[in-house]
Amino acid sequence: MAGLTGLEPAASCATGKVAQNLNACYGVAYEFPKPACTLATLDGLYIVDATGYNIVPGNPVPVPKTVVEFLTFNGDGTLTGIATVVAGGALRGPEFLPATGTYTVNSDCTGKLFSGGITFDLFIASHEGRLHMIQVEPGMMLAGEAKRVSR
Questions:
Q1: Of the CATH numbers 2.40.50.140, 2.30.38.10, 2.40.128.80, 3.30.70.20, which one belongs to the domain with range 39-150?
Q2: What is the mean pLDDT of each run of 10 residues along the chain (151 residues)?
Q3: Which long-range contacts link 81-88 to residues 24+ away (Cβ below 8 Å)?
């Protein structure tokens, strides 16, 4: 193998996955570089499924909520979307409620989404075209996954 002078592969090595073969056949640990994320990483249309609870002051029972939405990340830190929200078993606002917002992306594939006074922490699986998000306001618990459906 080029670059591994003086190393001979074990007789039982297969020619499969590079990182596994480097380690198993040559005793060399190799880790592929992690992708760096930018605003453009999220460019595209995503479908979001999220569930959680609202904690209402004075009410000891958490109110369940569910959100399904389309989010379009524009690749420049802005986004638009349409959502349907159900909380406590009732539709909240109109169906297909329009939304706008902004987002940030860090090179380690974390970020923030801001829309309608609500903030989410983002965890981006850039190579898979999806992200996980969790709401970070006190009294609000909503977490979900967004999957890219088109660019």
A1: 2.40.128.80
A2: 49 52 60 79 97 89 95 98 95 92 97 96 93 92 96 88
A3: 81/115, 83/48, 87/54, 87/63, 88/63, 88/64
